[in-house]
Input
Amino acid sequence: MEAFLALIIGSLFAIGLYLVLQEHLVKLIFGISILSNATNLLIFASGRMTRGTPPLIPQDAANLTTSFANPLPEALILTAIVISFGLLAFLVALTYRTHRDLKSLNPDVITNESENESVL
Amino acid sequence: MNLLMALPILVPFLTAGIGLLTRRHLAMQRRISFVGAAFLLYSSVLLLKEILASGIQVLQLGSWPAPYGITFVADILSGTMVVITGLIGLASVTYSLQTIDRERQAFGYYPVTLLLLFGINGAFLTGDIFNLYVWFEVLLISSFVLLSMGRSRSQIAGTVPYVVMNLLGSMLFLIAVGLLYGNTGSLNFAHLSLKLSDPVLAAVAQPISLLLLGAFGLKAAIFPLFFWLPASYPAPPVAVSALFAGLLTKVGVYALIRTFTLLFPLPLGEPNQLLISISGLTMITGVLGAVAQNEFRRVLSFHIVSQIGYMTMGLALNTRLGIAASFFYIVHHIIVKTNLFFVSGVVQLSGGSFRLQQLGGTYRLSPFLSLLFLVSAFSLAGLPPLSGFWGKFLLAQAGLESGQFPIVVISLVVGLLTTFSMTKIWNEVFWKNAPNSARINPLNRTQQLYLLLPITVLALITVVIGLFTDPFSSIALRAADELIGKQAYVKLVLQNTGGANP
Output
């Protein structure tokens, strides 16, 4: 199971990286969202894979004695998902404005534009 | 609960909240923001005094003991950074009062600025690496909004590389956090420091530390990850540029210092060769990039990159004096660089442009402003008796002591080239006669008060640090001692936890 997950994470990173390197802002958005999902899976895998062992203390015991599924990575992932969702929404809005104002989604064109004088 | 530690985080947050509630009353919002920023500076000075008097402060939010709870830690490094944040925040808000247009105010300029300060202070004070990630995101999203707020094409064009690079940097950071957790089972800095000292983890520690170097290096704009900075910093209004120039890259440098002293320290005295090479290259590329520029703020932006090299150089030397020099340099740099951006804004207001060719005659128009520029510019270049001289002096001394001669030579040559660059600005903007096309537009009295007051205060601070160096350098050495003697930090955070098994 772990090897399978590692393979998936690796391919997601490869796909995301490929998309980020394209000369198109929309592809870059897809790339970033795939990369952030790969990162989330990586955190998930870092909590170790266990099946059918919820982190619940039995009624007659004082604490957990057996191995259990670690709930902390899920909490981290949840935070990371919320944050990356917000940032992605900002990036989408920014891309729309770039398209409207600069009439281009090519990073090279955009970078050249930034070298023109800024007006206050 | 240690309320004093929570204030630098609570004050900007609450002020931003009140600011959002009063967004229909812009005059009131401005006043509230100013008072909030002033109170932030006051409370952070109190915190630093407390740290200097009674050592490292720890706050366990929600009363869960470390490493399970939310930990805030303030040592001298954090405390000083929080004070500087308060100072620059107040200066920037004062400067904004006369320079930010109504449209931006109606969009919530002041609350977002305070949220930025909230994020920065959180990043300085947190004692948990995942919380550091969250604070980074708080300050990033605020900086995105401040950067893109407005109508100009160049602003949008500058925001795109900034947003994309920072998103990728955050992702690297998050990957490193995931791997750290997977290998150690902890996220608390102190607890991590304890676990990572186990030689069993040495093999995984190295790749993780490199990931973190990439993530924080990107935010600090070190070579070769700096190109987004000169593209984005000249785009927004000057008050925003100045705030970013002073504080944002320094959060990255702070995180680098924290990681490489607490989590992945080399044996004391053994220089970090990779970081030394990066520092040298950062200094050189930054200063050479500045030579080719003809726009006031673009010149200054490239100098930020070059100066980051000095801050990482002290850390890379990995000696007591080196780390103290880095600390001293960060404080000096934040004050001076923010001030130079403020000056560029005044010049633009009275001269109508940021382009060096279209400016001129500022010395005749305002000798006082020219004097303030000279003080900051010479301090940046490192001329005695200003604060920059002592920063470079300490760095060179630390470099010579550990026998790293090439980097010392580079740092001195780059200092010379910085002088050249500042002279170019002086000649073009202040000394030469105004070109015929220039629209000279002297400041009125209120503008003079609100714009020149922060510039004067910051210039005075760099002079004072330069003339009375001893108390400042002794604080720097104490900060370095705390960073090197990390056992005290670890012990204070983890006390009362009864063993702290994961």
